[in-house]
Write a structure and sequence with these properties.
Layout lengths: L1 E6 L2 H10 L7 E6 L9 E2 L7 H10 L4 E4 L2 H5 L2 H6 L9 E2 L3 H8 L1 H10 L7 E4 L5 H9 L4 E5 L8 E4 L2 H12 L11 E4 L5 E9 L4 E3 L4 E2 L2 E3 L3 E4 L4 E4 L6 H21 L6 E10 L2 E8 L7 H7 L4 H10 L13 E8 L23 E4 L2 E4 L2 E4 L3 E9 L2 H14 L13 H4 L4
Parallel strand pairs: 1-2, 1-4, 2-3, 4-5
Antiparallel strand pairs: 6-9, 7-8, 7-9, 10-11, 10-16, 12-15, 13-14, 15-18, 16-17, 18-22, 19-22, 20-21
The structure holds adenosine monophosphate and glycine.
The site of adenosine monophosphate has 10 residues, from strand 17.
Length: about 425
């Protein structure tokens, strides 16, 4: 099979690395890809949202399947674009159509969906300029902190958690009337704050059956001890010690099944990944958000733990035979440490020459933001690498990731030195 992956991050490198191991793979293309994906297939320099250019590429290279990494092309309707085209409509796209992508593209839609289908989540109300005056009363009815979410995609920045009621009311005005997050904040979801420990569960579905993939914990803040600004994710660990088999069973019964059944009931034919952000509240799972894709850097620990052939699973999604597919996961622990550019998540410089990559033997380096400049690998993004390692314990795995993080060098390198530490101390 010839496969095209859309995207250019560590998630897409992990997909490419795994698909390249499949006996069923003939040619792999990644658009636009990075210096890491170039080791697994052929990069093609077109944007993941340039649908006309993607169409030409699919035609030219006889692509048999398209795997979509990021949310942007999905929310913009890449899958619908394929289905509406006489030539492309037979080619499976892994990733939902616009309707399913609304689970991520609109927080108001996803909250309505959860309430309609009995999926546990925080109590909420949505506000627009038409009912903004009721927002203050709703804030007063909740106990702090207050959670305000821009309805639309806001590059991961659209959530505010505020202790003070007056400030929350002012921010509601700011979002709706002053377009603090642009059009994404025309509608604002205000919801109850959930107390607990956060984790992510991933599901692959063909619209009828599903496989629950390994769970992972992400580290979102830039600073040690979960301090400082939010990032795309600074590291991840899988499995998550506080999500044991009994907890995952609860997630399956209370969240995964009603979600899959709800999609069917609502006439949404969903083929792809569902990323469920959860709070474990005293042993009870509650959904914080859905995403219509895999997480980054979670993919860099989840995909390497899957022992089965990913391309075979994706074919199961395409042909709705996922229930027939073999699926197994290693019990070993995977950790990943993200190396970023100095200054990230604020301004940072690119084009720094990377050294030391060839000296890493105990870990798998996934490229997140790199490019080639002549023969050199150079930095080309805020997040530069995700270094994944395996171990029998978190301590073993993370020690390898940190050793490799020290082996790679470029000007301005930074990484969080406490990835996994909170999980090691659990129960001790
Ligand atoms: P989101 O963009 O929806 O993932 O929200 C960003 C982060 O805000 C989440 O990863 C949580 O850490 C936090 N968060 C969102 N909603 C809630 C909530 N209802 N209660 C507590 N924390 C929340
Ligand atoms: N790491 C969080 C995300 O991919 O949304």
């Amino acid at each position: 099979m010839n496969v095209l992956i859309l995207g250019s991050g560590g998630r897409e490198h992990a997909f490419a690395w795994k698909l390249a191991q499949s006996k069923q793979l003939e040619n792999l293309y990644i658009a636009p890809g990075n210096a890491g994906t170039a080791q697994c297939g052929t990069n093609v320099n077109i944007s993941a949202t340039d649908f006309d250019a993607i169409k030409n590429l699919v035609w030219e290279k006889s692509i048999d399947m398209v795997l979509v990494g990021p949310e942007d092309p999905l929310v913009k309707g890449v899958h619908d674009y394929f289905l509406a085209d006489e030539v492309l409509k037979e080619i499976p796209v892994i990733g939902p159509k616009k309707d399913g992508a609304q689970l991520e593209g609109s927080k108001d839609f996803s909250k309505q969906f959860m309430f309609k289908h009995g999926v546990p989540t925080a109590k909420y109300k949505s506000f627009t300029k038409d009912n903004i005056t009721e927002g203050a009363a709703f804030i007063d009815s909740l106990t702090p902190p207050y959670v305000l979410k821009a309805d639309g995609l806001a590059a991961g920045k659209g959530v505010l958690i505020i202790d003070d009621a007056a400030e929350a009311k002012a921010e509601l005005q700011n979002m709706i009337l002053n377009a603090k997050f642009g059009n994404a904040g025309n509608t604002v979801v205000i919801e109850e704050f959930l107390k607990g420990i956060e984790l992510s569960v991933f599901v692959l579905t063909d619209g009828k059956s599903y496989k629950i993939l390994p769970a992972a914990k992400d580290y979102k803040r830039i600073g040690v001890g979960d301090t400082g600004l939010n990032t795309g994710g600074m590291g991840a660990v899988s499995p998550v010690p506080f999500a044991d088999e009994a907890f995952i069973k609860k997630v399956e019964e209370k969240i995964v099944k009603p979600t899959i059944n709800g999609l069917v009931k609502d006439g949404i034919d969903y083929r792809g990944f569902i990323f469920i952000g959860l709070m474990n509240c005293d042993g009870e799972p509650s959904v914080i958000e859905y995403n219509c894709r895999m997480g980054d850097p979670e993919t860099e620990v989840v995909i390497p733990r899957i022992e089965s052939d990913l391309l075979d699973l994706l074919q199961g999604v395409a042909t709705q035979t996922l229930h027939e597919k073999q699926f197994s996961v290693t019990k070993d622990i995977a950790t990943t440490v993200v190396l970023v550019s100095g200054g990230y998540p604020e301004d940072y410089e690119k084009n720094k020459v990377v050294t030391g990559l060839n000296n890493i033997t105990n870990s798998q380096v996934f490229h997140s933001g790199t490019a080639f400049k002549n023969e050199d690998v150079v930095t080309n993004g805020g997040r530069v690498f995700a270094i994944t390692s395996f171990g029998k314990t978190i301590e073993d795995a993370i020690a390898k990731s940190f050793a490799a993080a020290e082996t790679v060098n470029y000007e301005g390198k930074y990484y969080r030195s406490d990835i996994g530490k909170d999980l090691m101390n659990l129960g001790k």
